[in-house]
Design goal:
14 strands; 3-stranded antiparallel beta sheet; alpha/beta; 2 domains; Aspartate Aminotransferase, domain 1
Length: about 375
């Protein structure tokens, strides 16, 4: 059996090696490493895949979020509503811009922002909602968009973990996550479902004027070279990464199906254990399983993780400390936030290996040892 990894990017590369190598060599031979046709072609292909009018590539997913907030004109003192149960980048960029993140509760089953909590947190200073499609499951975007329209708020989707997720509205229409809100943001970090061989990110929008602002901000605030209209930054996706991503984009749906198949196997294997809660899958979106995350009931998570590690099985806690309890937000009075579901989840979630190259022998090995530990605990 091959050694187990949380993400096996090496084996994935070997399956598309000829395509990737040829694409990279083509960029090297062209000597056009920044911008140009390769980057533009990838942006166009990604826009078509996601059903978005505009895609603006950038250096990473964190930059994508920051540029989005800058393009919307958010300023110090403004508030954005966001879950605390998320990777820190979601809220870090708000703090960098002097914007106040207002942390709200998540849904206990989907792990995503709770629309009811969003509406209760709106004040006269609220300017945007930042739903996070956590672990590959979509947030309740229909409810969130309704709230945004009612209160005239922007919606910035953090789609770093859910690219390719198809969301179905109550009228039967479908849209991919990242293309529902006013702006969508994603990351191409190597472990992502669509991962580069380095860093990268992209911003999605259907709004022509927003697209112009996003492009300018990502390129030093310029539309015409050396004429800087707004304060911007330097955030570019290089051509080598764009070439690799363009190849992998062709395989993305295949990768998603492999992840969903692996999740199905886990689901069947753990379904009868009263101490394991398998991931929830809503009927209105196609969970893409960036992570396969369990909720443990009356199980010592640290002991389980240590036991799995002793057997060569990696596991991860996403995330052990919620954003509102991070030291960087002490000034916001993190301990004053009442987020019992978020706190409950951070104490109980554990993620198992899931990726496109995970085979049944490996999964059975993982399942057997998880169940062995739990059965011994409760025998």
């Amino acid at each position: 059996m091959r050694p187990l990894q949380m993400v096996d990017t090496g084996t994935q590369y070997l399956k598309i090696k000829e395509e990737v190598d040829a694409a990279v060599i083509s960029v090297m031979e062209s000597s056009q490493f920044i911008g140009g046709k390769v980057v533009n072609d990838f942006a166009s292909n990604l826009a078509q895949y996601n059903g978005s009018k505009h895609v603006i590539p950038c250096a990473n997913g964190t930059d994508a979020l920051q540029i989005a907030m800058m393009a919307l004109g958010l300023k110090p003192g403004d508030e954005v509503i966001t879950p605390s149960f998320t990777y820190i980048a979601t809220v870090e960029v708000a703090a960098l811009l002097g914007i106040k993140p207002v942390f709200v509760e998540v849904d206990k089953h989907t792990f995503c922002i709770n629309p009811s909590a969003v509406e209760k947190a709106i004040t006269r200073k609220t300017k945007a909602i930042v739903p996070v499609h956590l672990y590959g499951h979509a947030a309740d975007m229909e409810a969130i968009m309704t709230i945004s329209q009612k209160h005239n708020l922007y919606v910035i989707e953090d789609n770093a973990q859910a690219i390719g997720n198809v969301y179905t509205f109550s009228d039967g229409t479908n849209k991919k996550t990242g293309g529902i809100g006013h702006i969508g943001c994603t990351s191409f970090y190597p472990s992502k479902n669509l991962g580069a061989f380095g860093d990268g990110g992209a911003i999605f929008t259907d709004d022509d004027s927003l697209a112009l602002q996003l492009r300018m901000i990502a390129s030093h605030g310029q539309q015409k070279r050396y004429y800087h209209d707004v304060v911007g930054c330097n955030s570019r996706l290089d051509a080598i990464q764009a070439a690799i991503l363009d190849i992998k984009l062709r395989h993305l749906d295949e990768y998603i199906e492999a992840r969903r198949s692996a999740a199905d196997f886990y689901d069947r294997s753990f379904a009868d254990s009263p101490h394991i809660e398998i991931p929830f899958r809503a009927n209105n979106n196609t969970h893409v399983f960036h992570q396969y995350t369990l909720i443990l009931h009356n199980v010592n998570r640290d002991e389980l993780s240590a036991y799995l590690s002793s057997k060569g099985i990696p596991s991860m806690i996403y995330y052990p400390v919620p954003a509102h309890k991070q030291k960087m937000f002490d000034h916001l009075g993190g301990s004053d936030f009442n987020l019992p579901i978020t706190d409950w989840l951070t104490e109980r979630v554990i993620s198992l290996p899931i990726h496109t190259e995970l085979d049944r022998e490996q999964q059975q090995f993982i399942v057997d040892h998880v169940l062995t530990f739990i059965n011994k605990t409760f025998q």
